Amino acid sequence: MSGPSTESEKRTYDRQLLLGGAKRTAVLDLWEIQRYGTDSFGDADYVSIYGMRPAKWYAKGVRLLGRTAVECTRDELGDLIGKDVAEVAATAPAAAGVSVVDLFAGSGNTLYWLSRHLPGARALGFELDAEVFRLTQRNLAALALHIEILNTDYRSGLTSISVAAGQLLITFIAPPWGDALDKSSGLDLRRTTPPITEIVDFLCNACPQHRLLCAIQVHENINAASLVELKSRFEWSALRIYGLNAPGESHGILLGTTGWVP
């Protein structure tokens, strides 16, 4: 592992650096992962994934691109999401099994935590970006995790998988936000890439015979009109915000069901 160069020491390792230019698609060294955590959040272990701090997962052969380090669901958030999803799933009518699908898998860490809180569930993720897919598949293999990742988009993925009609289908939906998060009006769920409203419509049309539980990643500052529009698609919904970051910067999930009410 190489250390920081003089030029690198002058940079601030923040979201802008890791999502722009060469760093976005570069495999980061351990010191860069830790530096991002320190510079951006005051915590060198901020990018903890798969239940491990950076030094431990890096030693096991796990590697991340710059964009994945920024966009991944870290352990503290993933654990809370997994607990809340499992709590709602436990109220579903008796099912012939449970399938958990992450439509935009990235690092696969959200699937890791969902599967921990839903033992016995099939865990499957879709990742369209070829390089993110390659690294994630390699990382999961290095850790011997029973999570399946397919190199495909969510539409093709949902169309191709087979889920028995009697199963509970749980989907985690976290597409790139792009410019959907406005400082004044909040996260517009209709302007993500692709729009979350469009994803939910496709999901409901593609899986009409299934009981669905959707967990949609959101920001604590949400565009109110887009939230009302999205909630109208579900028979039941609940918003959970996790105060893990500074005020105004925390994430959460919108839980929604079709085919049953908790």
Estimate the mean pLDDT confidence: 92
C-alpha-based Rg, rounded: 18 Å
- Sheet having the most strands: 7 strands, mixed
Oligomeric nature of the chains? single chain
Order of helices and strands: HHHHHHEHEHEHEEEHEHEE
Under the CATH scheme, which architecture of the largest domain would be assigned? Answer: 3-Layer(aba) Sandwich
What are the SSEs and their pairings?
Elements: H1 6-9, H2 15-19, H3 30-41, H4 54-59, H5 66-71, H6 75-89, E1 98-102, H7 109-117, E2 122-126, H8 130-142, E3 148-150, H9 154-160, E4 168-173, E5 181-182, E6 186-187, H10 196-206, E7 211-219, H11 224-231, E8 236-241, E9 251-258
Parallel strand pairs: 1-2, 1-4, 2-3, 4-7
Antiparallel strand pairs: 5-6, 7-9, 8-9
Report on this model:
The protein is an alpha/beta fold. It has 2 domains: 6-71, no CATH class; 75-258, Rossmann fold. It contains 11 helices and 9 strands. The chain has helices spanning 6-9, 15-19, 30-41, 54-59, 66-71, 75-89, 109-117, 130-142, 154-160, 196-206, 224-231, and strands at 98-102, 122-126, 148-150, 168-173, 181-182, 186-187, 211-219, 236-241, 251-258. Strands 3-2-1-4-7-9-8 form a 7-stranded mixed sheet, sandwiched between helices. A two-stranded antiparallel sheet has the order 5-6. A hairpin with a 3-residue loop joins strand 5 (181-182) and strand 6 (186-187). Helix 6 packs across helix 7 (109-117). The longest helix is centred in the N-terminal third of the chain and has 15 residues, at 75-89. It is globular and about 55 Å long. The model has no long low-confidence stretch (mean pLDDT 92).
